[in-house]
Amino acid sequence: MSLTVADVAASREFFHTHLGYQVAMAADGFASLTRGDAAADIVLLQCGSEVLPPEQRDQQATGLIFALTVTGIEAEERRLREAGAPITMPLREEPWGERLFQLTDPNGVVVQFVEWATQEEPTQGD
């Protein structure tokens, strides 16, 4: 996933500090982040960078929710809260069984943690 942001260093530090991503490669206005257990790497590009096509240079990552599925969402939310992470939507459960909370990075990138509530199977004779 590639995100165009105003401050690459701020997002790089956020993803490293709170989500455990490591810098695989970095240069001025660019960082590639990886995490061994993640399904996708994150590339951060400086807004206005000439490596982007002209029509994309001034766009920034907005309206995007970067969703991560987790197990043990209460413990993850507690860990992040205790670490001082910017939790912008507290843990809640939706009527359809989705449990979630959100963080927002310094560039406005929303990171959502999701866990599906388990449905209890009916026992025989119910």
TrEMBL record:
Q: Where does the record place the VOC domain? A: 1-116
Source organism, top-level taxon: Bacteria
Q: Which InterPro entries match?
A: Glyas_Bleomycin-R_OHBP_Dase, Glyas_Fos-R_dOase_dom, VOC_core
Transmembrane ranges?
A: none
| UniProt xrefs under Pfam families | Glyoxalase
The protein in question is named: VOC domain-containing protein
